[in-house]
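During the second year of the project, the team shifted from modelling isolated chains to modelling whole assemblies. The rationale, set out in the original proposal, was that interfaces cannot be judged from single-chain predictions alone. As a representative example for this report, we include one of the complexes processed in the last quarter. Its constituent sequences, exactly as entered into the pipeline, are reproduced here:
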Amino acid sequence: MNTKKHSSLDKLVQLLDQGEVVAFPTETVYGLGANAWNASAVEKVFETKGRPADNPLIVHISRKNLVDDFALEVTEEAHKLIKAFWPGPLTLIFKKRPEVLDIITGGLSTVALRWPDHPLAQQLIDRAGPLVAPSANSSGRPSPTHPDHIREDFGENFPILEAGSTNIGLESTVLDISEEPFTIYRPGAIGKEQIEKVIEKTLGEPEESPSQPKSPGTKYTHYAPRADVRWMNIGEKPKENSTLYLFHKSDPAMVGDHIICYRQDYEKMARQLYDRFRQADLKSLHAIAVEPFTDKQLDKFPIARALVNRIKKAMDI
Ligand code: TXA
Ligand code: MG
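Output from the structure prediction step:
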């Protein structure tokens, strides 16, 4: 049974009103929230995470009309995307209104907005106002999918609105609709094809290594566990006790604490990935070997693209 301190909604609203930062659940990962209209509160988010100032934050809202407070214009296509996917794991990048705090956008002319599909997140935002919220991990650690992960990074007494494990487990899809062609900067649970169907046009391809990345987050080294993350070789059988083996399709017909088979349940793999990374470090494992994905699997399962993106980031490639 969890005997850890539980912070109530009332208490967290009060803290946010006082300009403090608090952690709250969303359907993707936990966020580190602060009032989006309070510059010193937003500043505290960067300090708490140790996040570079030029990596902008997503503003989280709890109803459609709040978009107008941040976005300069909401086009017909934006309305279609909002109708199809909000509340949900899709972040939309709009041209920003001049009032939006520069500290949120890192001086960019755009702002990222998301309406999370989680009742507690919605209640918190309804009461405390729009919240900036990066993932609630210290910079360079995996995003938190459980309150224990937040305590690992920020200590036992950090204020958290607790709701157990998050549903999706990987961060939202980030889609830039501020200029043509619309482009996905970060793959997530909502895939390219689903988006293309709704707006009836083809998305642009993100540049592989732009010298001036459009989405600043993409240039930073992401979490690399102490364990060496690598793709498995063809037909590789688990043999090392100090390696965590993650199979998504094959069944190696072997059992063991460090042999995990997802049998094409990519949603489950997404839900667990960051916890597996953290556990591997806690257990001082030397390596994490992941079964490689084929193009066919990536085409069939949108979340598999997000998985490969996060796994590659952990490999630092
Ligand atoms: O699922 C999620 O999106 C979670 C939950 C808490 O909502 N949040 C999250 O935030 O993952 P964060 O800060 O860890 O990632 C936000 C990403 C970063 O890569 C950032 O660079 C990008 O969104 N971003 C934010 N504003 C942007 C903008 N105006 N233009 C381009 N990229 C932007
Ligand atoms: Mg993050």
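The longest strand covers residues 90-95. Residues 77 and 200 are 9 Å apart (CA to CA).
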